[in-house]
Specification:
Blueprint lengths: L2 E8 L2 E10 L4 H15 L2 E5 L3 E4 L1 H16 L3 E5 L3 H10 L1 H4 L1 E3 L2 H7 L1
Parallel strand pairs: 2-3, 2-4, 3-5, 5-6
Antiparallel strand pairs: 1-2
Protein name: Anti-sigma factor antagonist
Family: Belongs to the anti-sigma-factor antagonist family.
InterPro entries: Anti-sigma_ant, STAS_dom, STAS_dom_sf
Length: 112
Amino acid sequence: MKLRLARRAVGDAVVVAVEGELDLFTAPFLRDEVRDAIKLDGSRLVLDLTDLSFMDSSGLSVLIEAWRLATSGGGGVCLAAPQAPVARILRTTGLDRRIKVYPDVSTAVGEI
């Protein structure tokens, strides 16, 4: 399994669960999913990273694009429950200072 995505509404936010590996080959799938989610479901987006085991710079660029799209639409993006390797990349790049990271989806939905 490379990447699996699942989208669901939670309150007035949309949650996209990202499972597997986010890299050069799979990033376009998440990019399309994020664009569709914001366009169809609104600009309050939570990316559930609970089951994301790997992310490279391609994945980071999708997160930045998601943030730009959502904030330009008056909404926002936050991340929920990244595993240690993914959390380390977010900290190292400083992206966790731009996109808020929460310990779980319910907290993220409540804060966005």
